[in-house]
Design goal:
This protein has one domain: Rossmann fold (3-Layer(aba) Sandwich), CATH 3.40.50.10070. The chain is 39% helix and 25% strand. It has 4 helices and 6 strands; from the N terminus they run αββαβαβββα. A hairpin with a 5-residue loop joins strand 5 and strand 6.
Length: 166
């Protein structure tokens, strides 16, 4: 019983990242070549930060995922409302639409989703969660943590595409 309690304390203090991934089994990954990326959703009202995070994830996708094109979609709405995946698919003639949310107010939580641009159906999702706690990060360090997480997620996506197209 004592070792279980010690293990829980150590685990709680580690702040390890966990990743959960889902992909629709029948997805023909070789047909997903051109994707759109909606602006990142964050708890922050800071539009510049949202744009920076969107660009950061787009860069990682371009480097890692082997896609022909990644199109950044801006919100035309002053309220930050985004069109559906089907609307984005028609407007930009893409195969898939990425959406993602980032919350780094207490730890780091990232949720990435890829929807089929024709049907709007969810075909891939990846969640990244790293514990928070009492750590205080500089904005540069926080940005580096997010970039590493984006890299890891884009790499996971690349592996799914590669393994499914064999």
């Amino acid at each position: 019983m004592l070792s279980l309690g010690v293990g829980l304390v150590l685990l709680a203090g580690c702040g390890r990242a966990s990743i959960k991934t889902y992909h629709r089994p029948q997805t023909a990954w070789d047909t997903i070549r051109k994707v759109a990326l909606l602006p990142v959703e964050t708890p922050s009202e800071n539009q510049i930060r949202r744009e920076q995070l969107t660009q950061l994830f787009a860069t990682e996708l371009r480097k890692e995922a082997g896609l022909e094109e990644v199109i950044d979609v801006s919100s035309d709405s002053p309220l930050g409302l985004f069109p559906s995946a089907e609307e984005v698919g028609k407007r930009y003639t893409v195969d898939g639409v990425f959406s993602l949310s980032v919350d780094d107010t207490d730890g780091l939580s990232i949720q990435v989703k890829l929807h089929d641009a024709l049907t709007g159906e969810l075909i891939w999702t990846d969640s990244y969660l790293a514990g928070g706690g009492a750590e205080i990060y500089s904005s540069k360090t926080a940005q580096q943590r997010i970039q590493r997480a984006f890299h890891r997620i884009a790499n996971d996506f690349s592996k799914i595409r590669a393994s499914s197209s064999r």
